[in-house]
From TrEMBL:
Pfam family, one: TetR_C_31
Entry-linked SUPFAM superfamilies: Homeodomain-like, Tetracyclin repressor-like, C-terminal domain
Source organism of the structure: Streptomyces narbonensis
Official protein name in the record: TetR family transcriptional regulator
DNA-binding region(s) in UniProt: 32-51
Domain of life the protein comes from: Bacteria
Occurrences of domain HTH tetR-type (ranges): 9-69
Alphabetical UniProt keywords: DNA-binding, Transcription, Transcription regulation
Amino acid sequence: MARARRHDPGRRERIVAAALRVVGRSGLAGLSHRTVAAEADVPLGSTTYHFASLDELLVAALREADEGFGRRLRESPALADPAAGLAAALARLLGEWLGGQRAGVELEYELYLAALRRPALRPVAAEWTESAVAALSARTDPATARALVALMDGVCLQVLLTGGTYDEDHAREMLARVLKEAPDSGVPASSEPTIRSTDT
């Protein structure tokens, strides 16, 4: 008589979590159905049952990893407060994220950049961008929101790839330039030249 399969409704989620741990520890080169099965403590057949290919597993992992900066951005009270300076709020959020667990930040970007070589991941990477743009569009126009996302991505990559220190003041200044905010405020800087009165 065949043995009944043990009911394990959370197995798929455990496999995804295990994949994230494997990539975080060994990089994408260390990811395989076998290494993930061992990490999740499940039979090898379970990983291939839930994910026919590694790309399918990476798509699920990429979606799960969007609980880092993307979640902070969507849940930030500053984005819902029109009186708060957006540049300062975003610079602070970046600092909190980069100042947290560096391994988690690196993992998010490793999965995000994997889309360069794995076309199956590109729609999910695009979802990350669109989600951030949508969150920022509550405070600015979509074109500016997209520019802000590009700038923040660039700042994060520079810090991660050079091992440098995040400079919150500099990030705030650059974000304010994109937003055309006056320095250290949430008030848009005037685009009109200042007219000085003269004695006649």
